[in-house]
Design brief:
67 residues; mainly beta
Length: 67
């Protein structure tokens, strides 16, 4: 996977995939530019200490394989 460092730049960020252990609430804008690039960054809101990673649907929509 690759992620750009910002809108209008070609810089690519290094990516490290991790095993999720905590759930965080984020704020995201669904505005997409040409080329399927999100226009605005995702913003961290808070940790959700009352939720586990099993409570969160996967990007694929498939159920969690944990547990």
């Amino acid at each position: 996977m690759t992620f750009s460092s910002g809108w209008g730049t070609r810089d690519v960020l290094d990516t490290t995939l991790v095993q999720p252990e905590l759930v965080a609430e984020i704020s995201a804008d669904a505005s997409v530019d040409r080329g399927a690039v999100y226009r605005h960054p995702i913003r961290y809101v808070r940790l959700c200490l009352d939720a586990t990673t099993d409570d969160v649907p996967r990007f694929s929509g498939a159920p969690s394989s944990q547990g």
